[in-house]
Amino acid sequence: MGKARIVEKIRIESGGIRKVVTNLLQEGYINLITITGVDQGDNIKLLYHFSNPKGDIKHIETLISKNSLSIPTISDIILGSYKWRFTIF
Questions:
Q1: So what CATH class is 5-73?
Q2: Other Cβ atoms closer than 10 A to 46
Q3: pTM of the full structure
Q4: CA-CA distances (angstroms) from residue 44 to 6, 10, 23, 86?
């Protein structure tokens, strides 16, 4: 694995997370490094950090409302991603 570097930041609506994650997997971004939650008042910004075997990193950024705290699951697409869900919420 080479030196890690962020190659792209992708901003999406929360409902598009499954499609974007599926596309990243097809591009070779097979490792979900972590999911970061950032408190932004009425919302939480979620940052999904993915890497490929070369060390390239792509971030997916989306907002969810604190009123719903809901986003479509990716646990059937990325096995093991469920563990981050418990960390964020």
A1: alpha beta
A2: 19
A3: 0.85
A4: 22, 16, 24, 15
